[in-house]
């Protein structure tokens, strides 16, 4: 599970589209930059907007399974992280993955794996987020996975408890 802490931001915002997204984006980018696993995998946060997130990772031998395809665990990680980040952009709240289901649609062979997540329902307690994963080969994207996630939206008190 991935937790994104944004506790210093105002989590009681009543508007999904608050006028100033910059502080939320800055906090998310800072938090993502501190994720050891994100660095270990070599993934990057390539796009961030209110209600959406795009993560990408380049092909490396250590991310592949025995047949030379991106390992399903890499796909799962991108889905987990991108859906939680996208949910956190909606209200500036901390977020934690509650569950997700993903379907592998085709072999993930290519030079780069891209996951695009978008908020479907920005709930106060649970956000519903969809994600699609694509493999890029010679500049052409191939849809390799799709997912749906339930993301727990944490109030400041819950976020502080998790942060320890």
Task: Write up this protein.
The protein is an alpha+beta fold. The protein has a single domain (3-9, 19-163), classed as Thiol Ester Dehydrase, Chain A (Roll). It has helices at residues 22-33, 36-41, 72-91, 156-163, and strands spanning 3-4, 44-49, 52-58, 94-104, 112-122, 126-137, 140-154. The chain is globular, with a radius of gyration of 15 Å.
Largest sheet, in brief, is:
7 strands, antiparallel
Strand content: 35-45%
Could you say what the CATH topology is called?
Answer: Thiol Ester Dehydrase, Chain A
Runs with pLDDT <50, length 5+? 7-17
Strand order of the largest sheet: 1-4-7-6-5-3-2
Looking at the structure, what is the overall shape? globular
Topology record:
Blueprint: E1 3-4, H1 22-33, H2 36-41, E2 44-49, E3 52-58, H3 72-91, E4 94-104, E5 112-122, E6 126-137, E7 140-154, H4 156-163
Antiparallel strand pairs: 1-4, 2-3, 3-5, 4-7, 5-6, 6-7
Sum up the structure in keywords.
seven-stranded antiparallel sheet, Thiol Ester Dehydrase, Chain A, about 160 residues, about 40% strand, alpha+beta, single chain
């Amino acid at each position: 599970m991935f937790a994104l802490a944004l506790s210093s931001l105002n989590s009681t915002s009543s508007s999904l589209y608050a006028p100033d997204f910059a502080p939320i984006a800055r906090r998310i980018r800072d938090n993502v930059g501190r994720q050891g696993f994100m660095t270990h995998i070599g993934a990057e946060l390539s796009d961030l907007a209110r209600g959406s997130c795009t993560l990408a990772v380049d092909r490396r031998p250590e991310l592949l399974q025995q047949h030379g395809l991106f390992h399903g665990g890499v796909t799962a990680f991108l889905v987990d992280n991108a859906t939680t980040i996208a949910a956190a952009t909606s209200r500036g709240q901390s977020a934690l993955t509650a569950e997700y289901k993903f379907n592998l649609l085709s072999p993930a062979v290519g030079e780069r794996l891209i996951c695009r997540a978008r908020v479907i329902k920005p709930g106060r307690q649970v956000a519903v987020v969809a994600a699609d994963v694509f493999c890029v080969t010679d500049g052409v994207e191939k849809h390799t996975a799709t997912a749906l996630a339930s993301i727990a939206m944490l109030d400041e008190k819950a976020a502080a408890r998790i942060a320890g």
